Amino acid sequence: MNHYTMKDRLEIGDVGIQFITPWLERKPETVAVTNVENDKRYRKLDIDLIWMYLMNNETKIVTIEVKTDSYSTTGNYFFETVSNQGKDTPGCFLYSEADFWFYFFKDTRELNIIPLQRARQWFLENDKKYDFREIELKTDVGVDGYKTKGKLVSKKLLSEQVLGIKTIILPDYFQIAG
Q1: Which fold has domain 2-177?
Q2: What DSSP state is assigned to residue 170?
Q3: C or N terminus of the chain, fewer CB within 10 Å?
């Protein structure tokens, strides 16, 4: 079981937002990108970003949940199914109301844009069939900390089974600016 501190988890998560936000802002069709991580209304829905853009002279709004991962070489996504075992709360993959899950591997800057509802539906229908490996993560916070559970899902399998997944390597805007 991997151990993390809350600080570790927050810092890892921030990296994804720090790369994805400027990438979205630089897209020519972008009207606005709003970070709603600290807004209680959106936190309940597990939504991190709102992206407003123009398509065919129409304004579109997309909600995004960002998941940042530091294990790019495994060939898997981690689908959080239980966010806190002690409280038996569902994981973000199961309850997020975002339109898209932006799954970002920080060491390779690989962004996987996943239509969340389609991926969730496929996962729920196929979890038993593929018998995905379950793992636990422990986060040290307070006296006891808490355990998170999730399933490892093959990136290759998911992209073959779920329509609309895109993979992009993001530029390192921090290097460009420096």
Answers
A1: Trna Endonuclease; Chain: A, domain 1 (3.40.1350)
A2: P
A3: C
